[in-house]
Amino acid sequence: MSLLAAPFPQPGPGLAQAYRDLDIAQHGTPKQRAALGDVNRLPRPWVPDNLSRSLRRELWDWLDDVVPWINEHHTWQIGAAIPICWDRHPHLVLELTTVTDLRYRAARSLTGDALEDWHRYCLPAFLDRMTYRLHGSCDTKHTTWPGRPRHARFETEREHRWTRLRADLDTWGAGAPARPTSTFAGQPTTRPYRVDPDTGEIVDDE
Known about the structure:
Radius of gyration: 25 Å
Strand content: under 5%
Structural class: mainly alpha
């Protein structure tokens, strides 16, 4: 016999400890929080750049278990399934870390509200964005990034672009007006005006 629904994959020991530390940072006593040191330096499992090499390895192992779990339990049509080549799509890697984190924390909640939000909003929105971006291009095999040539041109133009931007900065620093001239009701003016904070309307003091 097989399970009707397999349990959600769990993180490795290092990531599990990271979650415990984050729980203490949010809900622990002052003494417990002080023992953590600078909480801003705590690893956050949903941000790969924030992790050490060993935690990053655990994250990749975790995602490699979560992706087939999502495909088996939450998708039906092939177009909605996360492609095998998910690791070759930066947008999928970055979003999957958040999807995985939210699902893990929702299951640990004392109520089902967060899990319902994950089912109703988080996962469907992620799958919709993925389907829109990929357009089925990786259903049978990986397709290289169609936007690569355009991105290459962007990088090639960077030096020329910054030549123009530096020229603008040099001009600005060489005597440009400290405040640009604005227009109101078709009439050029440099006279300051007041804005009503409640309505957003310009108040004419004259």
